[in-house]
Design a protein that fits this description.
This protein is an alpha+beta fold. It contains 3 helices and 3 strands, in the order E-H-H-E-E-H.
């Protein structure tokens, strides 16, 4: 499945964690993996939302 674009304005990792509904540590991991893409203060969070959704589904499915 192709990732979708969803651009938000976020000035910090805390802002991104609120948008994505995850901890700041997870946001940093997503940034390190290149899943959350920065365009200055604009962030494309679509791929991160897809990744987190799929990870949550797989975690719930396999446990």
């Amino acid at each position: 499945m192709a990732s979708r674009d969803e651009v938000v304005v976020a000035a910090s990792s805390r802002d991104l964690s609120e948008v994505l509904g995850c901890s700041e540590d997870v946001v940093e991991d997503l940034r390190d993996m290149g899943i959350v893409e920065s365009r200055g203060e604009l962030w494309n969070v679509g791929p991160a939302r897809d990744y987190l959704r799929d990870a949550a589904w797989a975690g719930g499915f396999w446990h």
